[in-house]
């Protein structure tokens, strides 16, 4: 039987003490108004219990990822995720247990990493020592509103549209090629391309003998699809 169980006895002792005293929600989120337990609250209550139980907690950061995002007001916001390990070591017999957690935080200045490490430690402590929680106990006192991700715009194949217009054998086919391309150029606010399309359409229209108002799908043309109606 393994006699080096001091670390688990110490964890159990801290858990028992925490069950009696607990940590109150003495802080309030500035934006959403909910109460939460801050990292200082955890340190203040936990430090004495750890000393009494002879339990040391040694942090180790395994990785850090930082992304720059933008708030709705246009200012920069740094989003940091850290992967951390905490060695819980018994001072009685040197036995050790390692807990691995992640911490996430956002900040508009240089505190995002500090906040992420604090979040990692806090939730490691909550889960290891079974500290009771209820409701929304997000660690951050500030809720950041992040701007939505930019839409990905698929480039329009104007060359294919111009080729289809030049290959048109009727005004109906010419219209079918011109309308979606012109609509996309207007959507893109590309006045220069709209002028090119219009000039090509006018030249092709002159070359078409007569006006055929048949089915726009007449012929086999390679036309980029885009809904909308217009008159050329």
Describe the fold and architecture.
The protein has 232 residues and is α+β, with helices and mostly antiparallel strands. It has two domains: 6-128, Enolase-like, domain 1; 153-232, no CATH class. The protein is 40% helix and 20% strand. The strands form two sheets. A three-stranded antiparallel β-sheet has the order 3-4-5. Strands 1-2 form a two-stranded antiparallel sheet. The longest helix is centred in the middle third of the chain and has 17 residues, at 112-128.
Could you list the spans in which at least 5 consecutive residues all have pLDDT below 50?
Answer: 28-32, 212-220, 227-231
Strand content: 15-25%
* Cα gyration radius (Å): 33 Å
Computed structural class: alpha+beta
CATH topology of the largest domain: Enolase-like, domain 1
Order of adjacent strands in the largest pleated sheet: 3-4-5
């Amino acid at each position: 039987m393994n006699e080096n169980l001091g670390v688990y006895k110490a964890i159990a002792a801290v858990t028992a003490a925490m069950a009696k005293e607990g940590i109150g929600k003495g802080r309030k989120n500035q934006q959403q108004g909910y109460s939460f337990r801050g990292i200082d609250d955890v340190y203040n209550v936990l430090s004495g219990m750890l000393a009494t139980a002879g339990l040391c907690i040694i942090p180790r950061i395994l990785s850090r990822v930082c992304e720059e995002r933008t708030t709705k007001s246009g200012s920069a916001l740094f989003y940091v995720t850290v992967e951390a390990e905490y060695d819980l070591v018994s001072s009685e017999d040197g036995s050790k247990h390692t807990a691995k957690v992640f911490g996430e935080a956002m900040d508009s200045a240089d505190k995002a990493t500090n906040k992420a490490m604090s979040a990692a430690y806090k939730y490691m402590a909550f889960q290891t020592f079974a500290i009771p929680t209820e409701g929304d106990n997000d660690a951050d006192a500030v809720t950041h509103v992040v701007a939505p991700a930019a839409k990905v715009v698929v480039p329009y194949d104007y060359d294919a549209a111009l080729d289809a217009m030049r290959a048109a054998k009727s005004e109906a086919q010419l219209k079918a090629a011109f309308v979606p391309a012109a609509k996309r150029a207007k959507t893109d606010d590309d006045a220069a391309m709209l002028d090119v399309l219009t000039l090509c359409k006018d030249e092709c229209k002159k070359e078409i003998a007569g006006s055929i108002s048949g089915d726009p799908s007449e012929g086999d043309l390679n036309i980029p699809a885009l809904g909308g109606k217009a008159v050329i």
